Amino acid sequence: MPTTSLGTVVAENAIRFLGHDTHQHDEPHLVYVVTGNARLLADGEEWRLGRHEALWLAPRVPHALRIDAGGMALGPFLDPADQPRCRVQPLGVVPALTEVMTTALGAAPATPEQVAPFRQALGRVLRGISRHYFPVVLPVHPAVRALAREALRTPSMTLEQLAERHRMSARQVQRVFLDETGLPFTRWRNRARMNAAVEHLRGGGELTAAARAAGYATRAGLLRALSRESGVPVSALSTDAVGALGG
């Protein structure tokens, strides 16, 4: 996909560029949609990405990308130290990331010296947003791990519905979550969703967009959830959520 180590595409091919077949890289990297929509297959799962959405891949993750006609995506490589928390980490729309990528697209760096400052800027943004505010870990049990990932992509599905899809009982799932994460399923999912919202806020997003990115129907719903879990008053979160949560 990339024609430079930053991952830009040749200008004359940009609009016609439709993606690439399954491959992998030795470095961590991003898949960032500049415009249009894209479908990414990574580690056997499908991810739908819209305009300005990004996904962070660990090294050696097999993936294939397809971009809708008229769309464009970039695939910048990252420094080896800038590793995602998991093999495939969806980021959604992160305004600070969009700013770096838009600047890089305009500058069109072509040499390692020109690429370096953009790669460093991407690393700073990613490290700043990727720290979990609320500690959560994925279950180890393969079926429950798959269920957990689906639970984050489909926040409207109940535990019973998810368990049925994965041919387990809700009681089995609850037991595995308690044993392997220390949290009941509902609290685990709420924490994980709030972490996604905090990531968005750390990246420069505002509360309404952060709520939408994390699957909350309203800004007020996100504020109440953050307040319950963190103990920080809603009034403080409304004024400066990132500052109230300790940066």
TrEMBL record:
The keyword Flavoprotein does not apply. It comes from Streptomyces durocortorensis. PANTHER family: HTH-TYPE TRANSCRIPTIONAL REGULATOR NIMR (PTHR11019), TRANSCRIPTIONAL REGULATOR-RELATED (PTHR11019:SF159). This is Helix-turn-helix domain-containing protein. InterPro entries: AraC-bd (IPR003313), HTH_AraC (IPR018060), RmlC-like_jellyroll (IPR014710), RmlC_Cupin_sf (IPR011051). Residues 142-240 form the HTH araC/xylS-type domain. Gene3D superfamilies: Homeodomain-like, Jelly Rolls. Pfam families: AraC_binding, HTH_18. It comes from the Bacteria. Keywords: DNA-binding. Coiled coil: none annotated. SUPFAM superfamilies: RmlC-like cupins.
